[in-house]
Specification:
The complex is a heterodimer of chains A (about 240) and B (about 270). Chain A has seven helices and ten strands. With about 240 residues, chain A is α/β, with parallel strands linked by helices. The chains are: A alpha/beta (about 240), B mainly alpha (about 270).
Chain lengths: ~240, ~270
């Protein structure tokens, strides 16, 4: 379980303020909000990327600051996928396994397995610069998932994809989640991503967490005003 | 058939082109005199022991000083860009100060430092730099280290810090992240910087002259040889040395340009 208590962080002129949040193990949790609202900062805070913060984040009651980044068992996929540009697709995927001293034979096997699952086996010797958006996204996902993380964070993972690929990728993420049983936290500004993928969702407005809701219906009445642009406008 | 679009140059653009041509013509004219006057003396490179000594000494000291520059400069550039070091700004200014100080003054500072008590102590224990080949390396270090640090620092600063974060989430420690992610991605800048530092070391004169003097066949580097031979009216060896420096510097610039233009991602962006 991820628990965030009275968390605040200041980044230049922007401040994420007093966030309290609990995400149970195995849940798919969506974070929505306008551009500049603080969704990505919240996501990175949940991953523990910031050091100068107030409050605390816990993974299974362990304060996150006490766990080194290398030992957190998290996977992170950025909006532009942040693949290592000087490495081939296979080397990108195998990087984490190498760092965790996985033997060469097992490394190859796990790499081939995840590439097959994500249908990118044919890209193994390609450089990231030569891939399409969807291919990069699947490669970044494979790189994060090959280590079988307990929590997968994704920052607007589908925003650069065409509607058809987006739909396919949502199904794929759901399938992987069901297979691995990992917690998935993702940021989006597309309401459809929440509807199709998330178990619960939150809305971030002006650096504050305003609404948390399950995906069975609408956002709470008193927060309807905050959530309405997201519900009605579909995308922000 | 493709249509060629012809756009008239604005007055401002024409002035900038004229300025570029003037600068290029000035540099080309000045350097071409070295080539014209130096070519007849090129046979002296092989026959003159003095020119051969100066070339060997310059190449050796430049290689050693560049290697030390890389060993110390790359970690220093990393510390300046990626660690939360105390007195970060002050240290940056101190490290880059020699860039704006005349080389003669840098040589003088070394001379004063090693003529003082700690320098005398080192000298008494067999570690002598003044009027010594080791001093040439030290002078080249002081002149070129800030140059390499600045180029490497810029290369590191241009890297996406999120790649390091991703590497860490994948289990890489800070050294492996540096070695496997940052360094390969910044390699063009680092190699280009090293080549430029090396060619600058090869041509370093002011600090060397002040710190180790100009003694024939002892501390005689290529620029020192030009100075000594011109002072005594021996045009031949001076011209031969000038030609060698010009050739090596030109070659270094071409190699450095090659590394700067080469992408690290193994190919162009997908269209």
């Amino acid at each position: 379980m991820i628990r965030m208590e009275n968390y605040s962080v200041e980044l230049g002129n922007f401040k994420l303020k007093d966030v309290n949040l609990e995400i149970p193990r195995g849940e798919i949790f969506g974070i929505m909000g306008h551009t500049g609202a603080g969704k990505s900062v919240l996501l990175e805070s949940l991953a523990g990327f910031y050091e100068n913060h107030e409050g605390c984040v816990y993974y299974d009651d362990m304060p996150l600051d006490s766990i080194p980044l290398q030992k957190r068992r998290i996977g992170f996929v950025y909006q532009d996928y942040a693949l290592f540009p000087h490495m081939k697709v296979r080397d990108n995927i195998e990087f984490g396994l190498k760092m965790n001293q996985v033997g060469k034979a097992e490394r190859r096997e796990r790499c081939e397995e995840i590439m097959e699952k994500l249908n990118i086996s044919h890209l193994r010797d390609r450089m990231p610069a030569t891939l399409s958006g969807g291919e990069r996204q699947r490669t970044a996902l494979a790189r994060a998932l090959v280590l079988r993380p307990e929590i997968l964070f994704m920052d607007e993972p589908f925003s650069a994809l065409d509607p058809w690929t987006r739909k396919k990728m949502r199904k794929l993420v759901r399938k992987i989640h069901d297979e691995l049983g990992c917690t998935v936290v993702f940021v989006t500004h597309d309401h459809e991503d929440i509807e199709m993928l998330a178990d619960r969702a939150a809305v971030v407005l002006d650096g504050r967490l305003r609404t948390i809701t399950d995906n069975s219906g609408c956002f709470g009445t008193e927060d309807r005003e905050d959530a309405s642009p997201l519900m009605m406008g579909r995308t922000l | 058939m493709k249509r060629k679009t012809v756009r008239r140059r604005s007055a401002f653009e024409r002035i900038t082109v004229l300025c570029a041509l003037t600068v290029a013509l000035f540099i080309f004219t000045a350097l071409s005199f070295i080539v014209i006057r130096g070519l007849p003396y090129m046979s002296q490179v092989i026959t003159s022991p003095e020119v051969r000594f100066a070339t060997g000494l310059s190449l050796m000291t430049a290689f050693i000083s560049t290697a030390i520059c890389l060993l110390l400069g790359i970690p220093a550039a990393y510390a300046l860009t990626r660690t939360r070091m105390r007195f970060h700004r002050v240290l940056t200014v101190v490290m880059e100060l020699p860039l704006s100080i005349p080389n003669v003054m840098l040589g003088l500072s070394l001379l004063l430092m090693f003529a003082s008590m700690p320098g005398k102590f080192l000298s008494a224990h067999g570690i002598s730099f003044i009027y010594n080949v080791k001093g040439i390396v030290l002078a080249q270090l002081l002149v070129n280290m800030p140059f390499l640090i600045r180029i490497t620092r810029t290369s590191f600063m241009n890297l996406d810090p999120r790649l390091e974060t991703i590497a860490e989430t994948l289990g890489a420690g800070s050294f492996k992240t540096f070695l496997l992610i940052m360094l390969p991605m910044a390699k063009n800048g680092v190699i280009g910087g090293a080549i430029v530092a090396w060619s600058r070391a090869l041509g370093e004169f002011g600090a060397t002259l002040m710190f180790v003097g100009a003694t024939r066949m002892k501390t005689e580097t290529l620029p020192t040889s030009i100075y000594l031979n011109m002072a005594t009216g021996d045009i031949g060896p001076a011209m031969a040395c000038a030609m060698i420096i010009l050739l090596i510097s030109g070659l270094s610039l071409v190699i450095s340009g090659f590394f700067n233009s080469k992408p690290v991602n193994g190919g162009g962006e997908r269209q």
